[in-house]
Structure formats: structure tokens, C-alpha cells
Design a protein that fits this description.
The chain is mainly α. Helices cover 34% and strands 1% of the residues.
Length: 365
């Protein structure tokens, strides 16, 4: 038997020891994912205090998870679309098509609503208010066959198989358990975080900028009530429905789009089953209205000028139309060509350019 010198054995042992030490040094320590309850820095400028849910406090990690889910195409049946597919940041989180196409290339039934300032929404969600809370709204498009056409069970399987979601749910909730309720609440957190408060109008209110002569005249028309007895003092009466800091009134209304015989969508009545709610729809915010064409629940108007023409001279009577709107039918709003130009110019001051570029709301992937 060949005998190895002692020094050769010792040298070999030293090499092996060094190799082991190097391997141990190169080994990555497992990352420990822990819960992080750091509050989300919620900014809303000069808007009134928001209506945030007490059982779903916004945290930085919760909003981050909701943002990931909002842009996650695997929430859809074939992985081709996410919530952001129909709610695009560059269009104030709505769609420019009249009816968005789902994964099966089928059109929806109503125009996609904008998603911003949801924290100031106090009267349920969707055009007909069928979702009581924002977390309820978040999961319905996933299951709608005209939209994402997926089951929530399948969504859970996909998320649980993705380590980045297992980790992020742990950061938010302290455990790696992924549930429908937790997903919905995270999506609610992100949507609540999307705030529009820095339009030219807001800057004018803060004394930072001035309105042009046309914009100021449009502002006066917007806020002046209709007056059939003194046409020279009559206004566009927009604030009747689109008032307050968010330019809406937390109501469902019939704004004279069709007669009773022409109704093809009974709106709020589908939810309440009350005849008095027939063809009534949520009054949306007019913030960022310049970016959110087409207009109305069915996207029938392509331009703001067409919208103004409707209210000025195109109201249709029906049994549930708002009385204040019906009262203008006989004479119209008395708006001439310049009035319409001024009114539209004021509406454009409600555009918040920072909203469409804010990286807090953009695709995180």
C-alpha cells in the first residue's frame, strides 16, 4: 500500500477546509420576511378629510400589495389583462373605448368608471352601486365573464404559487396565508391611495395660479343656477349635481338621456328593485373629465362639447329624470357658442396632470 507523506495529507486537509469555508461564505442566508405596519403617507392636499375604512388601515406594504394586484394579469383567465387594462393611469384610470373588451373579446355593458378619490365615495360603487364597499368592487370584474372571466379559487392558486406574493402578503398580514378577503382589502388600499388634488383649479384655489378670462367666466357659469325668468343672469347650473370638493354629489340620478320608452339599461333599479330608481346612475366626479372620454354610463358622447349640448338643449323627459333637469327643457340653458367654449375651458382646469404621471400609481413590474 502506498503511504502518503504527512505533509501531503495535511495540505489536502487544509485545502478542503478552505473550500468549505469559502462555500459557507458564499451561501446566502435565507431572507426572513416579517410584517411591516408602517402607515401609508396619505396625501390629499386641500381636500376634506377622507372616508377611510377603520378595519383596513392603509399601510405602505398594503398599498404596495394592492398596486401589484391591480397590475397583475394573472388575475384574468388567460393572463392577458389586469385591472389596469381598463383603468389606465394616463386616462385618469378609465378606458377610452366605449365598452372595454374582456379576455374573450366580448364588450362590457357600460363605460369603465374612473378610479381616483375613492376615499371620498360614500354611496357604493359601480354605475349602479351594486358593490357596497370598494373591496367588494375589486373582485367582481375578476369573475365577470365579460371582463377577466376567472374564478377566485384559481386566482388563489396562482398567487400562492408565486413567492413574491407569498412574501408580500406576509409583510402586510404577518402570515403567508393568501385569502380572497386579504386580496380584496389590499386592492382596496391601493385604490383608496389614488388621489387627485393638484389640478389648475386646485392651484387657483390655493392662490398659486390665475384663471384665464374664459376659464373664469366658465367657472361662473358652472356655479350659477338656471334662471328662466332672467336669461341674462342664468347659468349652466352644473354644481347642482357636480358640486363640492370632488365635483359630485354622492347620488344616483337620471340626467335625461332617454325617454321611458328608450331605456335599455335600468341602472340603479337593478340593485334596489325600486321603480323610482329606473335609469338612475352614479353621478361621477368631474375631476379629470378632459381625460376620461367617452362620457355617460354608456359612453354615448365623445366630446365635452357634446355633453354640454345635451344639457343645454338635448334633455329627454322621463318618469325618473331629475326635476331640476326637466325644468330646463322648455327653454334650454340659454348657453350661446361662447358660453359653451368658456364652460369647457373651465372643465379642463379640473385636469390633474400629476395624477397621470405619479409613479406611486404606476405599474410596479
Amino acid at each position: 500500500m502506498t503511504k502518503y507523506p504527512l505533509f501531503l495529507i495535511a495540505f489536502t486537509f487544509a485545502l478542503l477546509l478552505q473550500s468549505c469555508n469559502e462555500d459557507e461564505g458564499n451561501m446566502e442566508m435565507p431572507v426572513v420576511v416579517e410584517q411591516d405596519n408602517t402607515p401609508y403617507a396619505f396625501e390629499y392636499g386641500n381636500l376634506p378629510s377622507p372616508n377611510l375604512p377603520s378595519d383596513n388601515v392603509l399601510t405602505a406594504q398594503g398599498v404596495k400589495l394592492g398596486r401589484m394586484l391591480f397590475y397583475e394579469p394573472n388575475l384574468s383567465k388567460d393572463g392577458s389583462m389586469s385591472c389596469a387594462s381598463c383603468h389606465r393611469q394616463e386616462h385618469a384610470f378609465t378606458d377610452t373605448t366605449r365598452f372595454s373588451l374582456g379576455v374573450n373579446m366580448l364588450p362590457g355593458k357600460r363605460q369603465a368608471m374612473s378610479i381616483f378619490n375613492m376615499a371620498w365615495n360614500n354611496n357604493e360603487f359601480f354605475w349602479d352601486g351594486r358593490a357596497h364597499l370598494l373591496r367588494d368592487q375589486a373582485i367582481l370584474p375578476i369573475q365577470d365573464e365579460l371582463e377577466m372571466d376567472e374564478t377566485l379559487d384559481n386566482v388563489m392558486l396562482k398567487l400562492r404559487a408565486d413567492q413574491k406574493y407569498v412574501d408580500q402578503f406576509t409583510r402586510v398580514y404577518g402570515v403567508d396565508e393568501i385569502t380572497i378577503d386579504k386580496m380584496a382589502k389590499a386592492m382596496e388600499q391601493f385604490m383608496l391611495s389614488i388621489v387627485s388634488y393638484d389640478s389648475k383649479f386646485d392651484q387657483w384655489q390655493a392662490g398659486i395660479v390665475t384663471l384665464t378670462e374664459s376659464e373664469e367666466r366658465g367657472r361662473e357659469l358652472y356655479n350659477t343656477e338656471y334662471n328662466p325668468f332672467f336669461p341674462e343672469f342664468s347659468g349652466a347650473d352644473c354644481a347642482h349635481c357636480h358640486g363640492g370638493a370632488n365635483f359630485e354629489n354622492d347620488q344616483y340620478m337620471n340626467n335625461g338621456l332617454d325617454t321611458d320608452d328608450e331605456f335599455t339599461d335600468i341602472g340603479r333599479e337593478n340593485v334596489t328593485t325600486l321603480t323610482k330608481d329606473r335609469a338612475k346612475f352614479k353621478v361621477p366626479s368631474l375631476r379629470n373629465i378632459e381625460l376620461t372620454a367617452p362620457y355617460m354610463h354608456d359612453g354615448r358622447f365623445q366630446t365635452l362639447e357634446q355633453v354640454v349640448d345635451h344639457y343645454n338643449e338635448g334633455i329627454h323627459p322621463s318618469s325618473t329624470a331629475d326635476e331640476a333637469i326637466i325644468n330646463t327643457m322648455e327653454t334650454g340653458l340659454f348657453l350661446d357658442k361662447q358660453d359653451k367654449i368658456d364652460l369647457v375651458n373651465f372643465l379642463k382646469t379640473l385636469t390633474d396632470q400629476s395624477l397621470v404621471t405619479d409613479t406611486r400609481y404606476s405599474n410596479p413590474f
